[in-house]
Amino acid sequence: MGLRGFERRLEQLVEGTFAKAFRSGLQPVEVGRKVVRAIDDGRTMGLRGTMAPNDITVHLGPADFARFEGFGDALVVELGDAVRQHARDEGYRFAGPVAVRLAEDDHLGPGRTRVDAVVVAAAGAHLGALVLPDGRRHQLGDGVTTLGRVPTCTITCTDPQVSRVHAEIRPDLDGYEVVDMGSTNGTLVNGNAISAHALNDGDVIQLGNTIIRFEAS
Length: 217
What we know:
- The protein is an alpha+beta fold.
- The chain has helices at 2-13, 28-41, 62-68, 72-90; strands at 44-46, 49-51, 55-60, 99-104, 113-118, 128-131, 137-140, 145-148, 155-156, 167-172, 175-180, 187-189, 192-194, 196-198, 204-207, 210-215.
- The radius of gyration is 19 Å and the shape is elongated.
- 30% of the residues are buried.
- The model has no long low-confidence stretch (mean pLDDT 85).
């Protein structure tokens, strides 16, 4: 599912501006497939399940690195999303935030690529992220994250349907929970109104008209 979605999005991204650059040679979709294979090859069994690499470096030869340059930021975002979705599909866990980067390697010729994927543990005891409506990720830690309209909230929402201090994301024994703070319009998780809810990977939190996705990675 993750790789298929990744391939569909890349097809859209390489149209227009990038179409000429990717008529031949190394294709972004090939890079995506190699990254997913590296995740599978690098997985290990941990105390809490299968741990997958979360720090990924894609090495490209000078010619391909130059071709990918104008597309690099978008590709890195898509690769990160593909890795997270593949981990959800396969039931993998991460020890730290997912990081993907492109690197130039003078030893690689055109069309050649190498992927290094390793497990890098986060410093804190808790690990998770909120994907905001504009696509940005807010990394969660061991502290409380507040969501609302006032500037003092950790995440400020401009949505008028969101209360001044609408909800909190709190670490618990085995992850995070979202707690409604007596908001006017309530807090929904996956379409259901909640007062407090233990979050699972992929849960959708709705505050007013604002949609935020929780990632346990």
